[in-house]
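Session log. Operator J.P. requested a structure for one protein chain; no other inputs attached. Running the standard single-chain path with token output.
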Amino acid sequence: MQHFRKDEHEMLSLLNSKFETADRNYYAVVTDFLNPRERKMVESLSGSFPDIKVEYYGGGNNEERERMRALLSPEFIEITLDDFEIMVFEVSYPEKFVTLSHRNILGAVMNLGLDRGIIGDIIVGEKIQFAVSSPYKDLFINELTKIKNAPISLKVIPHQLFQDNRLTVKHVSIMSSSYRLDTIVSHVLKEGRAKSKERVQKEKVKVNHSIVDEPSFIIESGDIISVRGFGRFIVSEQLAETKKGKYKVDVKIVTDN
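Structure written below.
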């Protein structure tokens, strides 16, 4: 617990209970869809359960997925992709009359009152597709019938047809005086810290999909920072402090094509 924030302790406890269940009952346990920070929690916990193996899958080309489910299982159990309980939907809608974005899809799904953890990657490319936890299949088909007042329909497609994330990723290294949220945003956006501080205070910045309005919030490896009007970036690695008291931080700036 000491290695993670207080607001992450609930998720840590939930993931730890899943490890305990797999270890105690000798069967595979699947998690919700996890972002990179949450997968870091899984890796940290796995050291306490040497007899439990961890595998990840998010549908289709696994290397391209940002959100994936973890399957925790004893070493002797053979698992298949079906054990991850993932289903991929393709959206049909009147493309000539309406344009749908990633935000539109996510907003419509969240309006169903569902937890973010049951939704995997949302791909807006040649087709609009998204992954979900398969037990929710009927709910999606019956309830998700309109987006932006446009009628839509959902079709289940094979995993191999799930498009890759069409992302442009730029790797950059920054030198920062601290791991404060406003400081990191300032360096990545190459703007004054006062402006970045104002962005945070005006609730224009999210960390791991939740709004954070405290500029002094401390960033950790694996965090996904979304800035309204800019996009998002992932803190991939925090390196050692330099002799001048600066911190080297490796960042992946992500742009949806």
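Operator note: The longest helix spans residues 9-25.
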